[in-house]
Amino acid sequence: MYIVTGGAGFIGSAVVWGLNQRGIDDILIVDHLGTSQKWKNLRALQYSDYIEKEEFRHLISHDGNPFSDKIEAIIHLGACSATTEQDATYLYDNNYQYSIDVAEFAMAFEVSMLYASSAATYGAGEHGYRDDENNLNALRPLNMYGYSKQMFDLWAKRNNLFEHITGMKFTNVFGPNENHKAGMRSMMHRAFEQITTDKKVKLFRSYLPEYKDGEQKRDFIYVKDVVKMIFHLLDNRCTGLFNIGSGKAETWNEVAIAGFEALNVDVNIEYIDMPETLINSYQYYTKADMEKLRSTGYTEPTMSLKDAIQDYYQNYLIKDF
């Protein structure tokens, strides 16, 4: 049995889909459906059971090992991923303490565990973007979401767990099944809506002189490539902390232009003011160092930004529009 927390979410549902492609359906999905539309992500998936996240937390915290099937791995992706979330106490409990509960269960019963960290832990990138466990204390995340992920990375290091578990620092992931994420949808998804309705894309102005409007750069990665990387780490029992990204820094202008091209619409970009709440916590540049993952034998190239957006728009979003 595989346990996937956050399994109804964006990356989680893609991982469950990947397991299904391997002929695996003995999967326990853990999530919190609430009033969101992410339940729709479950419809095409094959899995053995679903439970809510607080029920799962109670089970692993009070009942020893409540599962009769052998657990092959826990892929812990459940978290609040909102970079604008202001409730630090909620993020502490949901992203940090919950992850500790899962890790302690995995360690107690010798179960492989992969978990979601984030490139948000790198902050402004003043200390680079290397997935080096020994450099964790130097990192300064720019928002509480990033810090909640950093807290667990540091906890794992203090307890010498990186010899046993696998942390994954996701960069900017986009692709199918993110519709439910509301304000945290990727710019690729937002751009599709803007182009199909208004035939233009709105991007934030730059507030740093070294970056022109729309030339802020991020490491973008398609969710299909993310799934390949996760399975490589799982199959090869790689432990430690790893970047999950493309290893390329590309601009928001490139994202918008690729979107216009995918929909055969003339380029029309409007630059708008950034909300004041974001100005001091905005990452202008990210580029994951992928040397560590490559050193484990991962050789797959990532899909180009243009091809990934073409696939996303033509094979997924247009069907739902």
Assign the structural class, choosing from mainly alpha, mainly beta, alpha/beta, alpha+beta, or little secondary structure: alpha/beta
Helical stretch count? 10
**Overall pLDDT score:** 95
Strand order within the widest beta sheet: 3-2-1-4-5-6-11
Sheet-strand content, in percent, reads 15-25%
What does this structure look like?
With 321 residues, the chain is of the alpha/beta class. The chain is 37% helix and 16% strand. It has ten helices and 13 strands. The chain has helices at 10-21, 53-62, 88-108, 144-158, 187-198, 223-235, 252-262, 276-279, 291-295, 305-320, and strands spanning 2-5, 27-31, 49-52, 73-76, 112-118, 166-170, 172-174, 201-204, 217-218, 220-222, 240-244, 250-251, 269-272. Strands 3-2-1-4-5-6-11 form a seven-stranded parallel sheet, with helices on both faces. Strand 5, helix 4 and strand 6 (166-170) form a beta-alpha-beta unit. The longest helix is centred in the N-terminal third of the chain and has 21 residues, at 88-108. It is globular. It starts with a strand and ends with a helix. 41% of the residues are buried.
